[in-house]
Amino acid sequence: MDAHPDRWGEDLALIRLAAAEAGKIAFGYFGQSPEVWWKNGDRSPVSAADFAANDKLLSMLLEARPDYGWLSEETDDDVGRLGRETLFVVDPIDGTRAFIGGEKTWCVSVAVVHHGRPVAGVLVAPALGEEFSAALGQPAFKNGEPIAVSHPQSRNPLKLAVAEDVLKLVQPQHRGSVQRVRHVPSLAYRLAMTADGTIDGTIVKRNSHDWDLAAADIILERAGGQLVDADGNLLTYNRESVKHGVLRAGAEHALDKLRMFMPDDPTG
To answer: Which among 151, 206, 250, 265 has most CB atoms closer than 10 A?
Structure first.
């Protein structure tokens, strides 16, 4: 994908450092009742911590890579990113509702996307003391130790982290083949749970965004799993629309079953 094989490893080192610094800033607000605003028609919260972490990431990353584009949940979209072959895709706090509510399962998500696919990614979960990372050509790691998706024979039924309304969409004849675990509000963290084998997979409802997915996508891929659309295709990032349709993620043995379990077009 690139003539310089060390490039993505160097980028991974950069985004790990930046995500760690942003995580420290966000963690300073955690449990301190930060100021909260509402966006998207009062459907989505954003806190002072989101903005502070975003500012740190923006300054650190673009100072180091001024030729890269930028896409973040907390920055107005600049369509100039479409003309950049490489860009940072950032969610300063994935799981803001959990963060505001004092739950620990939130993370800073940072990816490098090149020609539409993530080539390096990091998730930092300060309240849990966890870091997930991966780059093209390298294994996926959690806190410095290699991770891998679940083994085909490890579980029956499939262990999935999905919302209750999604589980209700599973066709009745297949519900005995699914064990639902507690829903985790952070989508990126659910994908990380799939990457390290904690769960076998997850269903992603429509309208997730590039910044929810890109970092976790490369981590899951390098751990031996995949994040795919309804037709089984890998995702393309840095399009004009940053929203995605219904997705499924998991180890290879889980993906086919997830497709069988789900109706053609779950919505919501």
So the answer is: 250
Q: How far apart are alpha carbons 161 and 191 in whole angstroms? A: 9
Which residues are within 8 A (CB) of 140 and not within 5 positions of it... i.e. 6 or more apart?
A: 132, 133, 134, 146, 147, 148, 195, 219, 220, 221, 222, 223
Q: How far apart are CA 215 and CA 51, in angstroms?
A: 19
- The pair of structure tokens assigned to 200 is 């076998």
Strands 178-181 and 158-161: parallel
Kindly give the interhelix angle for 210-222 and 187-195, rounded to the nearest 10 degrees: 10
- Using only C-alpha atoms, the chain has a radius of gyration, in whole angstroms, of 18
Helix (H) or strand (E) holding 44: strand 44-47
d(CA 70, CA 81): 6
Predicted confidence (pLDDT) per residue in 220-260, tens digit: 999 999 999 989 999 999 999 999 999 999 998 889 888 77
- The Cα–Cα gap between 76 and 255 comes to 35
Bridge partner residues of 248 (DSSP) = 203, 228
User: ∠117-119-122 over CA atoms, to 5°?
Assistant: 115
Residues 6+ apart with CB under 8 A from 6: none
pLDDT digits (tens, 9 = 90+) for 18-62: 999 999 999 999 989 888 888 766 578 899 999 999 999 999 999
